[in-house]
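# step 3/5: fold
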Amino acid sequence: MKTLISIFFTTIFVVLLAHIMPGVKVDSFMTALIVALVLGLLNIFIKPILVLFTLPATIFTLGLFLLVINAVIILLCDELVDGFEVAGFWWALLFSLVLSFCQSLVSGFTTDKKPA
């Protein structure tokens, strides 16, 4: 159930960000849902491989290279999903930053807080 809620909120955020950012375009709500699913799958399967291969760069930049990896994941999603377009690397970077921030806010509200 938690996964479905996460996908739903990610879909909403993708639609909202596409309306706010001129460099990001989404054709429909269904396309945004597909983008949310594809982003989830890319983050599960591809991102760990990219992190492993770029570990020296990530360590050298004190973790800031992970922002580049997030932008690459967004650009890869752009290539995989018809109806989702990102104008370039910088728009992908900004989109990934704002999307991650929004997802972390929702995650903070939906996690179960257990008393110590």
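# step 4/5: annotate
The first helix runs from residue 2 to 20.
# step 5/5: archive (pending)
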